[in-house]
Amino acid sequence: MIGARDTGSQQADRPEGGRDFWPEDESGGGKKKGPNPKLLYGAAAAVVVVVAAVVGAVVLTGGGDDSKSADGGNGKQVLPTAYTPDFDGDGMAKVARRAADKRPFTEGEVFGGDAKSVKSGRFSFTLAGSQVSADCKAVTWGPRLQADLAKHGCTQIARGAYLSSDKQFAGQFMMINLESQEGVQQILRDLDRATGAGFVLPLKAPGAPSFGSGFSAAYAKTYGHYAVVSWVQRAGGAQPRSLNDLIEASLAIERPADFVYGRFG
Q1: Which UniProt keywords are given for this protein, alphabetically ordered (predicted)?
Q2: For every residue of the chain, which 3-state class applies, written as one string?
Q3: Which residue from 53, 163, 172, 258 has the highest number of Cβ atoms inside 10 Å of its Cβ?
């Protein structure tokens, strides 16, 4: 997994006083099953165990001109504490290039129907707000990420904010429409906090808590020429009892991407 990172970038320095996060597995459920295993790695290790990884527990935040873009009012340059990409794109050959899948997605296509309420295991989330933007720069921050989005033909970014039924967990679904699967793989490398390239701005929605401060985990996946990110945290950013909680929650948040399978015809 570490070998897939963009080694040409300097790693983000860990602030003094930061500590590694080794949550105990209190769920007692063992490994979770889903359409794609969530393998968590940190800046100093690649222990691909479902319930533990070494990650820095300090989230980078900041201001600056990039945060003034159309971010739905969130106004924060935030990064997930833990980030796990999946570069494979297994089973997505038919939509590996936008030339074979020319129709832009719509907000109703991505967030309609079953995507309004999503479930995985004990987690149930309701869509609090959604947006599809044709301006990829306006809903992201970081000059390097924005340059790569332009280079690889970004035409749309969909964002959805979710809140769990018990209001204890929040999630952000993000989908980026790019020219090719190769472009997706580069963007997934950029999203790694170690590159310092930038990230997609969380969408703020009515009734949903502010997202991104504190501990959070993002899982990025290759869906042909679409990059998909499911980003989750406990409401308010408190550390989870177990990374299993965030892994299972992320499987629910990833559900809007299922519309891609309908484009295989």
Answers
A1: Membrane, Transmembrane, Transmembrane helix
A2: CHHHCCCCCCCCCCCCCCCECCCCCCCCCCCCCCCCCCCCEECCECCCECCECCCECCCCCCCCHHHHCCCCCCCCCCCCCEEEEECCCCCCHHHCEHHHCCCCCCHHHHHCHHHHEEEECCEEEEEEEEEEECCCCCCEECHHHHHHHHHCCCCEEEEEEEEECCCCEEEEEEEEECCEHHHHHHHHHHCCHHHCCCEECCCCCCCCCCCCCCCCEEEEEEECCEEEEEEEEECCCCCCCCHHHHHHHHHHHCHHHHHHHHHCC
A3: 172
Q: What is the pTM of this model?
A: 0.76
